[in-house]
Amino acid sequence: MTDFHETRFPLDISLNGRGGPERRTDVVTLGSNRESRNARWAHSRRRYEAGYGVKSLAQLAAVIEFFEERRGRLFGFRWRDRADFSSARSGGAVSASDQTLGVGDGARTQFQLLKTYGESFAPYARVIAKPVADSVRVAVSGVEKTRGVDFGVDASSGVVTFAPSAAPPTGAAVTVGFLFDVPARFDADYLEIDVSSFEAGAIPKIPIIEIVP
Questions:
Q1: pLDDT tens across 99-156, in order?
Q2: What pLDDT does 106 receive?
């Protein structure tokens, strides 16, 4: 993303923000009173309100500085979603077996990071484009590989690349674990901030929206 800055929104603010995934579904009530539902979006999109995380004038100033450097909605950035930033389930530690990326064929060397939600009915695979590079752990057929020797990861795209000599053999399961950020941008070119109201306890509105890879 040429219009993306590989920098993270102030962590102390984002971890106290609010928001989550959004989907777009058309629901039509038929003459029989039954429903017809159709998903307009193949992928969810997350929205956040960063204003809840601003607790001081110093934090507010940091947001204004960050907003100005991003030129409002022009440049994207990394956002840490406190509720969903790890490949592990239920807040567990990251392991190389958290998520399955695919199966080797002896020649394929590149795999896109994914996080799968659900497993019984209609699992959803979400593309992870902004991993924390140092956190990525990879295993092939249950054997963990060495980053920098057997594989590398592009932290700006989420693509794992194996060395030619370490390409996963045919039928070998490729699994991975990682921490990640959400590619996001401001959802407004204007921040309406009333400092006097803020000092009285009002929360400034700082809308953030996910950039879907």
A1: 999 999 999 999 999 999 998 899 999 999 999 999 999 999 999 999 999 999 999 9
A2: 96
- 53-65: per-residue pLDDT in tens? 998 888 999 999 9
- DSSP letters spanning the chain: -TTEEEEE--HHHHTT-EEEEE--EEEEE-TTS-EEEEES-SS-EEEEEGGGG--SHHHHHHHHHHHHHHTTTTSEEEE--TTS-BSSSTTPPP-TTSEEEEE--SS--EEE-EEEE-SSS--EEEE---B-GGG-EEEETTEEPPBTTTEEEETTTTEEEE-GGGPPPTT-EEEEE-BB-EEEEES-S-----HHHHHTT-----EEEE---
Show the tokens assigned to 121: 């009915």
Place of tokens 């956190």: 135
Section 24-35 average pLDDT: 92
Q: Contact at 8 Å (CB) between 170 and 106?
A: yes
